[in-house]
Write a structure and sequence with these properties.
Length: 150
């Protein structure tokens, strides 16, 4: 069966990217695989390098937060996701590495753009850039909706 993989987080463009991925999955008759990666370094303080050994409470908290990200986004897209076969993957690791692994055998990988600075409309974030250059399948980079100027 066809598969569309999307990487999500709490960024501004994640909801827009998920809506795009839902539509692509529907058009392709594909399973939608929603991926959120989490990393121990993302939820720790500067003193963490001095901690030795597993931190099960921290790991569980980060995993719970990652699952909440997917749940919140699915609730927001609502009808866009209705009728789709959806897989949810919460994976320990860096976002680019995890998405590239999850994209193996996929028909499409969807990522959001998170360009920064004065050329934000032209730049890709580091994760989307890695995916564009190394993915084993086509990649769609979805930009956040344009903000209306005052």
């Amino acid at each position: 069966m066809a598969k569309v993989v999307i990487g999500v987080d709490r960024s501004e463009g994640a909801l827009n990217a998920l809506r795009f991925a839902c539509e692509e999955a529907r058009l392709r008759g594909a399973t939608l695989s929603i991926v959120h990666s989490w990393d121990l370094s993302a939820g720790v303080t500067a003193g963490a390098p001095f901690v030795i050994g597993p931190m099960p409470e921290l790991q569980q908290g980060l995993e719970d937060e990652a699952n909440a990200v997917i749940g919140d986004l699915l609730q927001e897209v609502g009808a866009d996701a209705e009728g789709l076969t959806i897989e949810q993957h919460v994976v320990l690791g860096g976002a680019a590495h995890v998405l590239l692994e999850e994209a193996a055998g996929a028909d499409l990988l969807v990522v959001g753009s998170r360009g920064r600075g004065g050329f934000a409309g032209l730049l890709l974030g580091s994760v989307s850039q890695q995916c564009v250059h190394h993915a084993p399948c086509p990649v769609a980079v979805v930009h956040p909706p344009a903000q209306a100027s005052s």
